[in-house]
């Protein structure tokens, strides 16, 4: 842990794993930064629009500068690309990711692309290779309501949970 009094906790995971929903539930206890909203509202933080996926391509260097010496909880599928003391990776069975994204109005191709990425542990692997296994906390949100997921995030922030990368296996989806 750094010498800062408040830790920096990145909450990342494939779109649809429920990061924004769960971190909104702890926003009265911690400083929660919903990074995707911030990127969308500041033209200096993204370089181009990915027309096919209807998403913005973030400028990670510009975002790092804008974040500065942040503390609290950073919510985004990009959160693990920035300095952090702990990284919480929300996981969700790919079939459920697909359902949640379709229900949210995403296109079938976007829903499938994200489900496959979740099955392949893409974000977990990036988080572990960037931050080291001892800083990564994996939380399976499949069949867990947002309040239970928020409790698990709180436990990771407060040091009441052990690091736990590699505990989830969704390869049955592939
Ligand atoms: N624990 C949960 N159980 C069931 N549905 C959930 C849960 N968490 C979130 N959802 C639903 O799944 C959808 C995606 O949730 P949310 O937007 O929080 O995901 P996200 O990981 O923040 O996605 P993104 O990275 O695209 O912002 C929403 O429609 C939300 O209502």
TrEMBL record:
Summarizing the function annotation, the protein's role is: Broad-specificity nucleoside monophosphate (NMP) kinase that catalyzes the reversible transfer of the terminal phosphate group between nucleoside triphosphates and monophosphates. Has also ATPase activity. Involved in the late maturation steps of the 30S ribosomal particles, specifically 16S rRNA maturation. While NMP activity is not required for ribosome maturation, ATPase activity is. Associates transiently with small ribosomal subunit protein uS11. ATP hydrolysis breaks the interaction with uS11.
**What is the organism field in this record?**
Halorubrum tibetense
Q: What is this protein called?
A: Putative adenylate kinase
GO MF term set: AMP kinase activity; ATP binding
Q: Which InterPro entries does the protein's record reference?
A: Adenyl_kinase_AK6, P-loop_NTPase
Residues annotated as region LID?
103-113
Question: How does this protein assemble?
Answer: Interacts with uS11. Not a structural component of 40S pre-ribosomes, but transiently interacts with them by binding to uS11.
What's its catalytic activity?
A: ATP + H2O = ADP + phosphate + H(+); AMP + ATP = 2 ADP
